Amino acid sequence: MEVNVLALLVGIPLAAVVIITFLKKRKVSLMMSKKKQYLMDLADSWQDSAVVQFNPTTLITEDVYQDLIDRLRKRVINNNVKDPEQSQYGMPVNFVETVSKHLADFYELDDLHSVLKQFRHFKTQIGDVNLHFIHMAGGDKNSTPILLLHGWPSTIWEFNKSIPLLLKQGYTVVAPSLPGFGFTDPPIVSGVSPCVCACIFHKLMLRLGYNKYVIHGGDWGAIIGAVITHIYPEHVIGLHNTMNHIHMGWRQILQLAVGMFAPKLVYTTPQEEAFFYPLSGMEERMYKKFAFFHIQTVIPDTLGYGIVDSPVGLISWIGSSLVLNSAPNNKAAEWRRGLLNIGIDNVCATVLIYWAMRNSQAAMRLHHEFYWNDREYLENFTIPKVPVAISNFPNGMIHLTKFTSWRTFNNIKQFTYHDHGGHFAHLDNTEGVVRDLVSFIEMLAMQS
Q: Which DSSP letter does residue 358 get?
């Protein structure tokens, strides 16, 4: 009798756990299947549209630039602080003053125009989005097409040095501006989330005649590229990202726990161990780095109204994000080194593009669309077969070890660490990220 009671006491809760786990997995599986089918049906419903040439420099005119300069020279920045370098409240006053003065007094509009004119720009309507993209054909008509995807608060400007390097090696490059970013118009409807962006960009590649292609992405581009790979794996030759797909699953929790006592058992490089320990340091970095994420997920328009109307606001919010993610340990106190790493002209060019297009508010909404439309889907998908490569940079935003990355990417072929560079690696370690991408493509070609 006592044995039967004990068996019931143990067996009933165990059975309940098994049943609940099964039902939860079943629910997730049905949700994933339904979401994927919805996205594919949505993409199939979009009608073909013409691809037309486009000149973005006609939108960034002398009058637009002069208006920006005039506003910067009349700027009012709160200097009522004892220490202009104080950073516990955010970016120091000196950072905003330095970039504002450079943009108003030293930056040349012709420099922006000359870089943009190197590339062939186009526009095409896909669904509810009037999409801008760069399309540069490689020297060989059979060259591997590469879809380059940027993130926030970046624009296609991030690839201004990488595209020539890829073209020099014979690759074809397609680099679209995300909906509401850069020269792509803001969506005319709500719900244009990262998953919808994935369908838009796949549709673009098919429209250009590329049935199979390599994807490279950073920030939102890394997430969107992973979604394309999940929905359309038969079209993706390989996926190369500079940001890992973060998910705090049991693998990472186990690795953190074991690493506290025996780091050499779970961390293969000093870079891995240094990022995660001490845990208090990791928590602080993540908490500060993702402060913007909460605001843009919940109330992007509240902040957006002020930023779209103020060049100082753009510099403070968008410029600081570029610089912090290139600074050592992503600390505001290290803003000078971050600015040196990423280049003050790159910050100015990005700010000027957002100012001319007046779409910084629309770009910020992508975080909101992600959270309320895609979050559950993105937390649960896996990519079992498509080859994946991940490049890691010390000042990047998100780091996962190769072990924990297997939760999402089951076929990792290349996993590299760099001794310098940040979240926007194309700007502060151009040669390193291009070298990784090219070596990955060459490896895939040899294995095919």
A: T
Element (H, E) at 64: helix 62-73
Cα 395 to Cα 392: distance, rounded to the nearest angstrom = 9
Q: Is the peptide bond before 387 cis (omega within 30 degrees of 0)?
A: no
**Strand pairing category for 236-241 and 213-217:** parallel
Which residue(s) pair with 124 in the sheet? Answer: 51, 131
Residue 79: other Cβ atoms inside 10 A: 9
What tokens appear for 130 in the block?
């009037």
Q: Which has the closest alpha carbon to 390: 366, 378, 408, 365?
A: 408
Which pTM was predicted? 0.91
Distance CA 235, CA 210 (A): 9
Taking each helix axis as running N to C, give the angle between helix 344-357 and helix 109-116, from 0 to 180 degrees, rounded to the nearest 10: 80
| Structure confidence by residue, pLDDT tens digits, 32-81 | 889 989 999 999 999 989 999 999 999 999 999 999 999 999 887 766 77
Phi, psi dihedrals of residue 416, rounded to the nearest 5°: -120, 150
Q: Where are the beta strands (DSSP E) in 296-428?
A: 388-392, 412-417
